[in-house]
Amino acid sequence: MTFTGLHLPLITPFTTTGALAEDALERLAHTVVDDGADGIVALGTTAEASSLTADERARVLEICAAVCAERAVPLTVGVESASTASTAEALAALDRRATAALVPVPAFVRPSEEGVIAHFTALTAAAPVPLIIYHIPYRTARPLSAGTLLSLAAIPGVAGFKHAAGGIDDATITFMADRPDRTAVLAGDDRFASPLLALGASGAILASAHLATARFARLVALWRAGQADAARALGHRLAALSDALFAEPNPVVIKAVLAEQGRIPSRAVRLPLLPATPEATGTALQRAS
Ligand SMILES: O=C(O)C1=N[C@H](C(=O)O)C[C@H](O)C1
Known about the structure:
Family: Belongs to the DapA family.
Number of strands: 8
Bound molecules: ligand LZUJQKHR
Distance between the termini: 36 Å
Shape: globular
Strand order of the largest sheet: 1-2-3-4-5-6-7-8
Function: Catalyzes the condensation of (S)-aspartate-beta-semialdehyde [(S)-ASA] and pyruvate to 4-hydroxy-tetrahydrodipicolinate (HTPA).
Protein name: 4-hydroxy-tetrahydrodipicolinate synthase
CATH class: Alpha Beta
GO molecular function, one term: 4-hydroxy-tetrahydrodipicolinate synthase activity
Order of helices and strands: EHEHEHEHEHHEHEHEHHHH
């Protein structure tokens, strides 16, 4: 299976009293698909997954799975835990309607690169669905060399990567040149999405695409079609939007803009996140229009 196109890592909307806003989540999921998203990611970082209760996580999954089934689009589910055993347990219990699981290196632990390979080898044995490895060293504190990324790509059961290396570094360039064709690479760093697509990424998982969904979908399509001039120009404009949306910790600005636009009932986020400032919200609203 090859993952292509734009996949939306949905925020979790809350009501004005702080409860899960189920209707708003369902509406949002339908809207992004209407606007050109090729798939949905539930319970990613952008969903504040670690701040949700187990019941809320289960409801989010049910809602997203129902929309994905109705719209016939893939559902990728974020699964994160501190150890290999607990991650394997969470994967084994995954909703059967999931198409893939998005799994980072456990944060804070800082295993060796050999440990990372052993971790994902063990997880593929436990997972009922293919894995998309979430490479995000600035959150996990575990950089990975090109050699390790290529070893991970060779593990049966690894369908691809969400690549969010914090830039286009040496490892990224070597990995993009040498990875097997069957390995999907999805751009996962909003600001660097266009350059990674230019290097051959097959798609993207971008929180920024809650806004301007159709334009982000077009960015992916243009790069995939080799229309570099148009893609580059659009990429520059969308990078400016991403800058504004990531001016404060994700997803606080995105939620504030969606609330201002009346697409979700409130800008509420859960601690330790704080609601977006009016300044950041104003700038993002302008760039989103
Ligand atoms: O939840 C996600 O998936 C994403 N998370 C990233 C982050 O919060 O660092 C941003 C990316 O756009 C998608």
